[in-house]
Structure formats: structure tokens, C-alpha cells
Amino acid sequence: MVLEDLENDDQPSKTRLLPPAMSLVLHGVLAFILWLLVFDAGPRTSIRLTASLSAPSSTVSVKLPQTVQPVDPVAADGEESARSTDSTISDLLLEALSDTVIDVANETDIQEKIEENQKSAPIVDFFGSEAIGSKFVFVVDISLSMDARNMERYRRAKKELLRSISNLNSEQSYVVMLFSWRTKTMQYDRPPAWIRAEKNHEKKLFRWLDDIKLSSGTDPRDALSLAKLMQPDAIFLLSDGQFNSPNAPSLETGWLLPNGERSQLSVSDGIATYMSSIPIHCISFENPFTKGSMEKIAELSGGSFRYVKTKSHLPVDSQRFLEAVRLIEDTYRKTSDRSTEFQRRMSFTRDFIADGEFAFAEYIARPIRDADPANINNPILRKILLTILDEELGDTRLEHLPMSPEVEQWVLDHEFR
User: Fold this and answer.
1) Which of 135, 163, 266, 373 has the smallest number of CB atoms closer than 10 Å to its CB?
2) Using one digit for the tens of pLDDT, what is the confidence trace for 362-378?
3) Distance between CA atoms of 164 and 392, rounded to whole angstroms?
4) Where in the sequence is the domain holding 210, given as residue range(s)?
């Protein structure tokens, strides 16, 4: 910029020296500001520095330390702001700004990615219990009680097992173990071998399950021991009965230890001692009396628990029902010992509940609902039975359901007694 002093022609030297001096002052101020930006000296507060660049509309805002005071635009004779044409100054200011930008991931985006990864992970479900992983062991009860409701119970379990396994992908593997007092493994391998869920793999499982015969006992310890040796991602345990063991332990019963010996710890104690590292997803199947023990196993192992109700309230085992009510009537028709009759009714009621015949159980238990408490030897059992029946049936009664002609006639004959 050229400054002219027309009124002081006699001072040419001052006129020539003024522009260089002002330029030095301006550059000195800017140099001092850049020094502060680099060394970050002094306590920090935010002030605004406006630097006019080559384009009139270009302004840049930066954070400066408190020690830097705002710099007013330098004016010449109050007419015009001095402008710097030094491009290096603007480049440094822009670079300082760009260095302060930090790209932080949004928390919502992170959570969405986690949920997306979980959804894409391979999942297997069995009667609504779910597990994530690539290797699973299914431990399924084949005790005699699985023949309940004329084998409906076992057929339902088998159908769900086939459905669950057929939904596995080719990257997943499985093993099925069936237990009573002894364990049956697929292909009868000892130790069992993983089966990859490749094309048509379930056909072999279907044929094997069709050949299985139910047998005595409800002892999953050997099967769970074998399952642990395979180190699966999860175990599914399905049972409809309360666990027991044979009178005389054998080489095939109890917990199988790494040294080949057997431990006779109970199921729950063995879970706590040997199985706490593998989640066991427990399905209490159609028998409400098993809920407590199965839920405890799930809790001890870090697995989940699910109670699966009987699929239908339709009465099935009519012959068994008629035998029970006739026995009660014939035995107690001519006696006044009501307490013994009620105790017998509760025993039958419990058995029918365990086998999923809730409509028959409710009919047998009716006389104990309003019985004199003095005639109830076991009031706790009475309360448990009636609570279960109300939870399972609601307002449904045997008379509301289709019955065999023999049962229907019995109900009609005893309706007004």
C-alpha cells in the first residue's frame, strides 16, 4: 500500500519509511500469534481472531490462549484496513484449525452395529430357548413317562428336535444324546462325534429317532458328562420327569470323570461342580412338577429356563381315567373315612398332572376343593395341586371338552351325585 502526505512535502524520508515500518509491525503481531498457537502457552479461554484473506468474504475463527489480546485491524489515516497478501499466514491458520478436528463415533451407531452383529450370528432355538454358536448338544429324556398321552409327548419332542436341527446351517455341528438310566448317542459312538449340518443330514437323525424305545429311569448325568467333554457352545436339556438313579450304580450311571471313574453326586450338585463353564438351556417339558429342578440347573450353569405346557387340554387316556375313578368309588363307597379317600384322590391327581392329563386330574380333584380341612392330611400338597390345575386349565373343565363315549357316560351318571 502507498501512503501519500501531500501536506508535508518537506519530509520525504518519513513518507518513504512509514509503509515498511507498518508492515514490520503487522508481521510481528502475526508471528507472535503463531508462536502462541505452536507452544500453547498460558491458561486457555476462547477469543475470536478474524484474519482477512485474499478473498473479501474469507474469515477464519480459531481458539487462542488468554494471553493473546484481540488485534484491531490496522488502519492508515483512518481510511482503510490494512490487508495481508501473504498466503502463508492463511495456510497456517487453516492448518491449525484442521488439526483440532477429532472424529468421534456416534454411540447410537456403535450400538446399532453391535445389535446387527448379534442378529447375524448363527442362532439355534429349541422350544423357544435360544443359543448362539456353532456347536450344540441336545440331551433329551426318553424315560417311560415320555409315552404320556398315548405317546403324544415323545412325538412332539421328536418333531421339535428335528425342526430345530434342520434349521442349522452348514457351518454348525450338533450331537443328540438320549437318556433314561443309560445314554444313547447318535451312531452309538463313544465318545460321540460331531455331525455337521450338511445337506440331508437330518434324515439320519429321523431314522435313528424312529428306532428308539423308551426305557426306565431319568438320569442325565452320564449324558451331560459326555456333552461336557465335547466342549459345545451350549447344551439343551429336555426332560419331563424328576431325576432319579438306579438302586445299584453301574459303570454307565453317574458323572463320568476325566480319569474314567464315576461320581454319584446328584444332578444339581454335579452341575455346580463339573458343568458351570457350559450354559445348559433347560426345557421343563409338559410336567409342572419339574420346573423347580430344571430352573435350578439353568441357574447353576448360566443357561436359560423354559417351561413348555402340554399342547392340548383334550383328554386322551380315557381307559386310565375310568380305572382310577372306579377304583376310588369302589374303595370308598361304603366308608366314612373321607381323609383316606381325599389322600388317594390327591395321589391320582398328581399322577395325571405329571402326564399332562389336566382335565382328568381336575375332575378327580373336585371333591377336595371344598373339603373340610380336618379331612386333608397334606394341605400343602392340596394347595399345590389346585394351584397348578387353575394355572393350566383356567375355567376349562372336562365337560367342556370332547370325550370318549365311555367317559361321557361316566360323567353323566355322576353329574348329580
Assistant:
1) 373
2) 999 999 999 999 999 99
3) 26
4) 116-308
